[in-house]
Amino acid sequence: MTPKHKIINDPVYDGFLNIDDPLILQLIDHPYLQRLRRIKQLGMADLVYPGAVHSRFSHSLGALNLMCRALDVLRSKGIEISDDECRAAKAAILLHDIGHGPGSHTLENIIVHVPHETVTQLLMQHINRQLGGQLDTAIAIFNNQYHKHFLHQLVSSQLDMDRLDYLSRDSYFTGVREGIVGTDRIIYMLNVKDDELVVDEKGIYSVEQFLISRRLMYWQVYMHKTVVAAEIMLRNFFQRAIQLGHAFTTHSGLGFFINAETTIDQRAMQADESLLHRFAQLDDNDLYQCLKESHDDPILDLIRQALLGRRLLSVTFSDQPFTQSQVEQQRNRLATIQGSRDATRGIDPQTLAHYLVGTGELRNRSYDFNDHEIKVLRKDGTCLPIAQVSDQLDRHFLQKTVTKHYLFFPKTI
Amino acid sequence: MTPKHKIINDPVYDGFLNIDDPLILQLIDHPYLQRLRRIKQLGMADLVYPGAVHSRFSHSLGALNLMCRALDVLRSKGIEISDDECRAAKAAILLHDIGHGPGSHTLENIIVHVPHETVTQLLMQHINRQLGGQLDTAIAIFNNQYHKHFLHQLVSSQLDMDRLDYLSRDSYFTGVREGIVGTDRIIYMLNVKDDELVVDEKGIYSVEQFLISRRLMYWQVYMHKTVVAAEIMLRNFFQRAIQLGHAFTTHSGLGFFINAETTIDQRAMQADESLLHRFAQLDDNDLYQCLKESHDDPILDLIRQALLGRRLLSVTFSDQPFTQSQVEQQRNRLATIQGSRDATRGIDPQTLAHYLVGTGELRNRSYDFNDHEIKVLRKDGTCLPIAQVSDQLDRHFLQKTVTKHYLFFPKTI
Amino acid sequence: MTPKHKIINDPVYDGFLNIDDPLILQLIDHPYLQRLRRIKQLGMADLVYPGAVHSRFSHSLGALNLMCRALDVLRSKGIEISDDECRAAKAAILLHDIGHGPGSHTLENIIVHVPHETVTQLLMQHINRQLGGQLDTAIAIFNNQYHKHFLHQLVSSQLDMDRLDYLSRDSYFTGVREGIVGTDRIIYMLNVKDDELVVDEKGIYSVEQFLISRRLMYWQVYMHKTVVAAEIMLRNFFQRAIQLGHAFTTHSGLGFFINAETTIDQRAMQADESLLHRFAQLDDNDLYQCLKESHDDPILDLIRQALLGRRLLSVTFSDQPFTQSQVEQQRNRLATIQGSRDATRGIDPQTLAHYLVGTGELRNRSYDFNDHEIKVLRKDGTCLPIAQVSDQLDRHFLQKTVTKHYLFFPKTI
Amino acid sequence: MTPKHKIINDPVYDGFLNIDDPLILQLIDHPYLQRLRRIKQLGMADLVYPGAVHSRFSHSLGALNLMCRALDVLRSKGIEISDDECRAAKAAILLHDIGHGPGSHTLENIIVHVPHETVTQLLMQHINRQLGGQLDTAIAIFNNQYHKHFLHQLVSSQLDMDRLDYLSRDSYFTGVREGIVGTDRIIYMLNVKDDELVVDEKGIYSVEQFLISRRLMYWQVYMHKTVVAAEIMLRNFFQRAIQLGHAFTTHSGLGFFINAETTIDQRAMQADESLLHRFAQLDDNDLYQCLKESHDDPILDLIRQALLGRRLLSVTFSDQPFTQSQVEQQRNRLATIQGSRDATRGIDPQTLAHYLVGTGELRNRSYDFNDHEIKVLRKDGTCLPIAQVSDQLDRHFLQKTVTKHYLFFPKTI
Asked: Which of A209, B201, D249, D394 is the most buried (most CB within 10 A)?
């Protein structure tokens, strides 16, 4: 029996999310959405920012909250949106992350070879069947197949409710003030022109600050080098397990996927729906359970204990790619340390180095000229891309891609 | 290799915790403290307040933060506290929750028959041995055996850094503004008189509000009836498992304790230190793993799925004890529902009712006249208990105990 | 030409006030409301809390903001409120403080012998005539003559939008966290039962905290003893000026009223409307101008310079009335100091003491049993006064009146 | 008698400013600093952001607060700063704005022809004489004549405590979140290298965001077009008064300066110190008093009533200079309106247009390559300008100057 009315506290917006639509309430109560309570929004970032243990569930509700406000604003500006379309847009944003698995982005293509967006699609379709087609419009909006394209842009674009929520939320829970954004102002300034989501001219500074904050949060939080270190370790732990074959004692939970003999890709998942439902049972507890199980393999054991005890790899960033000799130097250093320790003496140095030393590359561009550009609606009724209107964020600035090369290696083992 | 200097963001205090003491850094890095990252501060309260997934680890750091500030304030007022005593007081507050197990208070006396305070003692002693006695003073302070008693009061009293932190923290993460407290002001007003922690007269209103906020948070958050419902379910799930004997397939993790044939009490834990270390591996992931494992027993399965999907028992509060006939009425209702469902038809109605229908009682008094009373230092140098000085919080108010009786039962199953 | 749509930033509610009603926009633009921009909400309290220079104008907009939200909430709960009634309730709250003069409460019965509530009435009627009767309903609501009494209660009762706003606002600008109140929650919990504004049972803790915060803010901010000292000085400055007769060189501004030969009471103000309009030109600048003008009278000069330079009287509080001998002692002390200074040697000691030494009394009761009590709407549909429902705030607590006696005297002159 | 210890609430930093240095306490109590309580930090910006009535006094205390923290941080990093130098740096920042007059920047070169920095100098020297030379070091630091140049940089540079405070403060009181800056983090990251104030590499993102926030606040708040409109009106009001000669009835207050027959420049002020002291009596009340006095001149009367009632000029911005014909068009429009109104019919249209129609230009560059550049201290001990280190804020971005042309004209009169 679903309650008719729900008020949920959200510390981020210092107010309440007020829900009375029966469909939305039903979706919130769905076990596959409830599951997101147990998946952290920011993966391993709480190892750097201890407050950042907030869940994808709270993010989904937050994005829903912003969607409700945005729809109200647009309607108050005379944009026609029917009650059904409102409900569908809300459902779409509420479910937009439902396909995420444990460890969020870090374990993509490790647990299954299906991108989380595809899993989201499959789960939405499954729930739609359960609900007798009540999500048809929501799915059309989500897939940009609905004739009012601006509704899709509220769900997914360079200025969508997803991004607006996560910046504020991640800022709130990490305590990194750089991410604070004038969410309210941006939402008040949203408008629709020629079926496209645009921003009233008065909101231009807020949008600029939003783009910049995103860029800063990327390096300050999401790609903080200690976070990168932890994610490499997590990824390599599971890659080692996959490489070993039957690494986990149980075939339940995450063990099932990691131990699986064949790659599970989209085709496999669609052929056997039980795979989808098994996946939709997983959450971060399964991930930690794999880390908490002791292993015969010393490499697995070394990584998992280091992760649990927060003894992380070192990561250094550089504008230039690291040379082979820099990598070799760290491999040699590792081999020396390894030889001096009982626990690691027996391991093949090459294999150990494979998991503990390496390089990689991170790229960030906070704006995408190939995607729908953010457009500004001027007082005279014309629309222009923000890159043309903004004093500060000109094309030079916006198209700049920052690339950082990194080298990871153990301080000690 | 321990870094020499650490800055940690804490969103609650909108600033940083700055740590450079090598002992404190070592304690933070200890795996048994790191473990608290994986134990939620508020147990099941995030089922009502989705933001409230903050960890005991962040609380421990927060309490340390307040301790640092309080020691600075006291020293600036001329109270003599040596560097060693500062370090010890910081170590004591940092470790004050180290004995908590999964599910925090809810599973006390279920996993082991040892109160978490005792586990804290045992773990402190263990770490002290590892560190060659560096925690001697910290432990003395913790146990109120140190000659400067006010140091103990900073760690544990009616106005300690523990309570000051958790009120602010729980308020921040739940979004319940009622818990916001003038922490800074209270700390600025701390003083010591005749070896007792006291509050300067100018801080009296802040202390009053602190006492009242605690009382309100108790009912609004900690004992919110939906939280109570979830905790009853969690407790009953494990009690059912214990009653069944070998409920869990693995003997690792929490399964070891729940499946154990004999009660593990303090004596047992001291006799066999491996029990302590096993306990000190547990965290909330173990708890959820138990909930995620499917069971042959339909009662276990029913409760665990309800918890995971957030289909919680109903709880009603009353000033009066519930009558036997009110309980019977709910039992009968349950039996009727039960009979109409395939999944539950086979279960013995009495047994099912034992786990799903019942009564209990909650009591709260925000002030304890038997404990050291909070004393106010007046301008003339005299000290008086707050109950005598406060305009508002007189004896009548402070000694009032609120008792609520509750009845729990399923809306449906 | 009135703009059609206005968005105003309000830092207190971390969002915007969005106004599109032409009548409300017209009222905001009225010079008599704009005047409130130049009257501080908290009189002299910024001498203690430097941030607290916020204006009655911002409070009026804040209360309007809360009124908009409250009306939305009530309508969403099915309470019938027409668009006209909404507009009227908004107009009433927006104008509720329009009759305040410079120095707010401190100079009541000094500038004119008309309470500010009466001036508000007169100004509302004047504006209503200007607007051709568009405020008829607003005035009826304000005066509790409208048949839907709950609308009046939103404007003026023990839980009105005025109080809800000023607590949050004063807390925000002073930085005194004790006043932070769950405004959003209280507003969400408002309801109407039998034409009476009530609070849903779930909001009871927030209302309790609201009552307590008000009580604390009263002593911590509004009646802080340094604020009391400054207000005594301000009052005595003008009383001295009145006593002297033509103290001010100009007859414009405040000088007109202070120099006036006859008392201006309600009768006089109604007989000669120009008095009302003169009063409605005054703001805090007039008050400070009086303080900045140099005077022949040494007492006036002494007080005004002390106020401008923040050299304030001492105030001590006591539960007991001060004795005549305590007062005498301070008078004698003053006489001694006075004799040793050139600037004050010539003043009659008795007269000086009349303005610089004295006693008084403050009383606070945060709840009024004679006023409409705050009622709680329980789940079963019944309504009970909060004093009967609350665990904490029983009759004993709520009816308690705190009385403080004070003695003021100069530290030095 | 100066109190020994002072705690002042500052809502911006959510904590307290704790002062116990007798010199600093004496400076705070000085009437010329107390005067800053009555000068708004943001001039007319509260006409757009009603909360923004905060004073230069609160800004001065806030900058002092940040200075205290910054000095603590630097000392904790081993930078040698003596107690005397600390006191001097604190005194310098506390007094840095003491030379501001009413209306802040808007009335510079109108009231006197002396820049506020020069007035600050003169007042510091005056107070230094009063205090027997106790400010010698503070003045040397202020003037960058002290051998430890980094102390001057804390007071005045592209990353000084002045800017850090005002961004946070203006953001807090306006409610414009775009200005929120990681002040705490920036201060923690300050360091000194080769006698130069630098930022540790880890703080680079916070500095970037600081530069960007300043740029955004410039256009969103400081040069908001409605604020620009109000400032033009204020300026033109006083220019008209100066042009008319003896516009004000009194020669006290601001009237003295505006009515003065000869220009008061630095030479004049130094020749006759009484001019300095007269200036140091002025505050915003004097400004409003001039606006509240009625005038024979219809232009003065028109502007002052419009300002008091917030009927402001229109301002439009353009990337291109406005053409003469655009200006003429507005002049003609004005002449038409003017002719239709009794009150303005008699005024010479040319003269009226001189005060109500015109153009101007605003420029902003948030970074100055000619000033000491902000340097980043890298882990390897080298220092580089931020323009070389930053991924985002490259030379192209930082050196960009934004110029906006504006046209002002009345909507109506």
From this structure: A209
